[in-house]
Amino acid sequence: MILELDAGNTRIKWRVRAPSSEIVRDGSCQLDEVAELCANLIDQALVRRICVSSVLFDEKLAKSLQGCVERLGEKNIVFAKTLAACGGLTIAYVDPSRLGVDRFLAMLAAFHHYGGCILVIDAGSALTGDIVDESGSHLGGYIMNGLHVMRQVIVDRTDSILVKEDAEFALTPGRTTEACVSHGALLMFQGAVKELVAQASAVGVARVIVTGGDAAAVVSCLSDCDLEIVLAPALVLDGLALWAESCA
User: Fold this and answer.
1) In contact, 223 and 126? CB cutoff 8 Å
2) pLDDT (tens digit, 9 = 90+) per residue, 218-230?
3) CA of 14: how far to CAs of 8, 227, 240, in Å?
4) What domains sit in the chain, N to C, each tagged with a CATH number?
5) CA 28 – CA 35 distance, rounded (Å)
6) pTM of the prediction?
7) Active-site annotation, residues
């Protein structure tokens, strides 16, 4: 079986996938928990190979996985890389290595599952949107602050404002400074999402594929959208599986 890890900016999503593609287990963890997770799954004979997607591959992650490398062997642990072409998808960047592997894998899975003429939105720490045409050509994309980062930017730059992490986001006018910050962040987020869709519609996009921790907020912003909206929470992990099978 294969352990697939999607290491983002804040958390690691994981799943154990059988050769039949059945998902045996899944969950999420912090970076400092990944070594124990891997060790436990290896001890239970559930994992013989590990595939990793990491937007921030650093020494800490490498150290966390070192024990797994020693037990499984280097050839059984692979790190996904953005490629110029894979699975019918062709990347627009002149230097494909400059495109984040999470965006690449999300597009790869979206194109494989839903075909072209799509906008792929990943709403996490960053809000990204990428357009893929009918032939699988990536037409380019956008990167902006995600919903929580939009709010945190103001908090970080203003000593007198303190907003709790679980503070409610809403579109109604706020009646405290803290509420105004949270509601203003959602207003900006909604505007960004709707403009992403407008830009995509202008080039013939017919379907929007949404993933990421704030995917539900994106879907809510598009409640009046004429395009088909698809929620795909495991999109990056699905792309990682495709990469490992076809392009590794």
Assistant:
1) no
2) 999 999 999 999 9
3) 11, 30, 11
4) 2-79 (3.30.420.40), 85-240 (3.30.420.40)
5) 13
6) 0.92
7) 102
